[in-house]
Each structure stands twice: as C-alpha cells, then as structure tokens.
Amino acid sequence: MLNKISSWKKAFGKNFKKDKSEYIGVLFILIAAFFVRVYRVDELLGFYFDQGRDALVIWDLIKNGRLFLIGPVTGLPGIFWGPFFYYLLAPFYFLGQGNPVYPAVFLAALSTFAVFMLYYLGKTMHSKEAGILAAIIGAFSYHIFLTSRWLSNPNPILLSSVVLLWALWKIVQRKGGRWWVLAALIVGISLHFEAASAVFYIPLFAIFTIWQVAIYKTSGGKNGNIPGIKTALLSAAVFFATLLPQILFDFRHGHILFNNFSELFLEERAFSGITKYLLETRLEFFWSGFSNLVFINSPQVAKFVFGFLTLFYIANGKKFKKGLTPLFAIFLLTPVLGYLFFHGNHGAVYTYYISGYFLPFILLTALLLGELWRQRKGMVLVVVFMFLFFIPNGKLVKDYLVNPVNGETDIYFKNQMAAVDWVFEDARDKEFDKFNVDVYVPPVIPHAYDYLFLWQGTERCGGGLCGLVEEEMVPSLYTLYETDPPHPERLEAWLARQEGIGEVIEEVEFGGITVQRRERFE
Fold first, then answer.
1. Which of 183, 268, 280, 500 has the fewest CB atoms within 10 Å of its CB?
2. Taking the CB of residue 267, how many other CB atoms lie within 10 A of it?
3. Which residues partner with 271 through β-bridges?
C-alpha cells in the first residue's frame, strides 16, 4: 500500500511539472465551483417542506437513536426512496449541532467533486481540453448550480451518475471485475437518491451487460469484458444489499411497498403504450431539460449549436475512442425511451427526474467540443460556444448570489431564522412561561418551521424549548405566515380564522415572512 502511494506521489509530481498550467487551471475551476455553491449559503439556503421533513427524521436519529429503513416518499403514492440519503447527511447535522448549513456545504463539496470527475473523464476519454471544458460547463451551468445548492435527495446523484459512467467506461476498457461491482453498487445507492432517474439505471446496466456479452461472444473471447461467476455473484449481492432496508421494511409492514408497486405497475399500468401526445411532450421535456443545462432560456441558440454538433459528430464520430458512442447511447437514450412509456404520476414529469443524466450529457457535449478544438478553425467555434454559454448562465448565477434577501416575498434561510429568533427573544423579553406557535406555509404543512423551532428551542433551553408548547393551549400565541402569491385566498382564510382566536398585539416582517404576537380571546 505504501509503495502504491509512493508511486502515485511520484507520478503526480512528474505530471504536475509537465502540465503545471493545466493543474492550476483545474484547481482554479474547482475552487470557483465550490465558492459559488457555498457563497452565502447561511443566508440563501432554501429550507422548505422537504428539507424540514428530512431534518426532523435525522434529528430523531441523532437525539433519540431511532433508526429507519426507508427514506422520504417519492412523487408516487406509497413508494419510498431508500434511507441512505438520511444517513449520508446525519454526520453533518451532528457536527453542526442541528444546523442545516453543514449538510448543505457537504453536498456542495460532493457536487464539486463531481465537477472534478467531469474533468477526469473528459481527459481520459478524449483530451485535457475536453476535460477542462466539461469541468467549466459543469461548474457554472445554472441548472447544475441550483441542484448543487439544493439540500435535497437529487443532489448526490450528480456525483453518483459520473461515478457510474466511470465504472462502465473502465469495463469497456477491460480493466477488471471490480468495476462491475462498483457499477452495481452505484446503481443501488442511486436508487436512494433520485429513484425517478436511477430506476432507469437498472435497464441501462442490463443493456450494457448484454452489449459486453455480445462483444465477448462475437470476438471469440478476445474483446468485451464479462464478469466471472464470483464477480457476478458479488455484484448481485452488493446491489441486493442496497435494497435490503426497504425489503426489511416491506416484510415488517405487511408488504406495503410490494403491494404499492404492484398496484402502480400492474393495476394502474404506469408503463404502457406510447401515445402521440406523450411522444411530443416527452421529447420536448428531454430537449428542454438537456439543452437548458448549457443554453438556458436560449432555445434558438441551443437548436443551432446542438444541430451543428450533431452534424459534426456524424462526420467525425470515427475519431472517438472505441466504445464511447455505444456507451453514451446506452446511458442517455435508455431514460428517454423509458419515459416515453411512463404514464404514472398522472403523467407529470419534472426536470429533476433526469438529474442522473445531467453531467453525462455535459460530458458528451465537452467531448464533441474537445474534438472540434482539434479541427482547423475549431478553436474559434469553441470560444464562441463558451461565450454563448457564459452570457446567460453567468448572469443568472451572479443574480442569484447577490440577491439582497430583503424583498417583499423573499423566503430564505436568513429570513426564516430571523423570524424564529424574534419569537424566542420576544417570548423571553415578555417573560412568558408558556406560549404557542401557529404557522401557515404553502403547501400547508410547516415541516421547516417545526424543525427550526425544535432546533433553536433545544439550542437555547434544552428539552423545555423555552416555553414553546404544542398540546396545551395558552394565552400567548405567535402566528407566523409566509406569502402565498399563487393562492392568496388560502392565506386569507387562515388569517380570518386567526382573527377569531386572538388579537394582534405586535407584528414584524422578515422579507416574505410575517410574525404576529397575539393574545388569545378568553
């Protein structure tokens, strides 16, 4: 082991001296990527329904030692993600003593490492130019930037997607059985992050395996890389192990998960025939989702540039390394075909459903740009491409980061914390022994504030929560509500009910959050 580390250090030192400018440039990209992902995260963090729900579960794990076998519910009724995302974040909630900023920074670090993987894969698949271009696009794409700052389960699939692609590429290069095991592990783990993306990793992996077996057989065992019996069994065991928590949960709860899956796929026919409407809407969904990664809100530019790159690939595809074309075809077309047959969730699909394919698409784009860079006058076209990329994406990233967080409808972590702090400080100044808090947020369930009041109350006063009580109704009441522009009638109805409960004594605003101290009517 020490000999390997020593050889790696020598190789790195030799390569650094040879390509010093490249390494410094990549380091600068990674530092910049991490910076834009964590800058003002303590102010701009989005902490809403999902984040509060997840934090409450992790709080229960840390404070009460309550283990769990499933994660949050998916968009499909009765279907749950695996619990790995919760366990992944738990150490950082613990280190931050409950502060959500700590796990948010950790996820930003994972996303930054995914940017490094883009560089590494681009370089090994094509050239250092392709790797650097992939890293730049991955670092500053507005959609990737937003996903990287999202304290939610789709975030880690950015990294797992490129690790899976890396493992499959190693298999294509006939590097050994351990990569089959890694690929199986990543497929299983990804199902704990964003199942709507990772569910297609299963047929993707199956198609990839069939492809490798076909190459192996047609070449008489000279090409292709198929796993031996031990490797195949170990890969299957590793994949099965990632599903073990849900399987145990299913057995302990009367096969509720299995029954829900059966109802979804057999009775409701979540996957069935393609319709004209579905074909049109799904293809538009994928085109919009992928093209906006690079040319956000610039559909005409995207059509022209990607049309040109498609023609360029047709003319130059043979110059790419053997196996790259079918690998990317399998990886990117499998979800497209899968979603053409998907009728579940009332036909609704969301962009984050394909977050497990964002970075592989960016990598493929960078490989084409890397080849274009080698062509006569191609450098100029690549520079124009990057200029067109940076204009909209750079502006949107900058606008997001310099947001003053004091607008009339702003609801960010800074404002939420200010509102919660005001309640505790005001209750202390008024010397309330006990007080109630009633919260209105769209979409109605205030998980975020349930957690923030629990966390801050415990930090200040331990288990007594500084007098905050839920079961007992007391004269001192604080009402907290967020603006609800899409449904003002719901907020008005809630406020009307509060008018019949207590009189407003004092009112303060924190961006889009209003807090009132009330005295209950006797």
1. 500
2. 8
3. 342
Could you tell me the strand order of the sheet in which 436-440 lies?
436-440, 476-482, 513-520, 502-510
Higher pLDDT: 278 or 87? It is 87
Q: How far apart are CA 53 and CA 58, in angstroms?
A: 9
**Cα distance between residue 217 and residue 219, in whole Å:** 5
Q: Which pLDDT does position 14 carry in this prediction? A: 61
**Residue 507 in contact with residue 514, Cβ under 8 Å?**
yes
Which of the 8 DSSP states describes residue 476?
A: E
The token pair that represents 512 in the structure block = 């889009």
**What amino acid is encoded at 29 in this protein?**
I
Joined together, the tokens standing for residue 263 give 């109802």
Six-digit token pair at 86? 């919760």
Say if CB 66 and CB 467 are below 8 A apart. no
* Cis ω for the linkage preceding 156 (within 30 of 0): no
pTM of the model as a whole = 0.92
Q: Is the pLDDT of residue 110 over 70?
A: yes
DSSP states of 498-515 as a string? Answer: HHTTEEEEEEEEETTEEE
Confidence class of residue 80 from pLDDT cuts 50, 70 and 90?
confident
Residue 224 has a pLDDT of: 65
pLDDT per position as a tens digit, 338-396: 888 776 666 678 888 899 999 999 999 999 999 999 987 899 999 999 999 999 999 99
One-letter-per-residue 3-state SS of 312-375: HHHHHHHHCCCCHHHHHHHHHHHHHHHHHCECCHHHCCCHHHHHHHHHHHHHHHHHHHHHHHHC
Whether pLDDT at 31 is above 60? yes
User: What gap in Å lies between CA 61 and CA 66, rounded to an integer?
Assistant: 5
Residue in 185, 208, 2 with CA at minimum distance from that of residue 82: 185
SS3 222: coil
**Six token digits for residue 93:** 């909630």
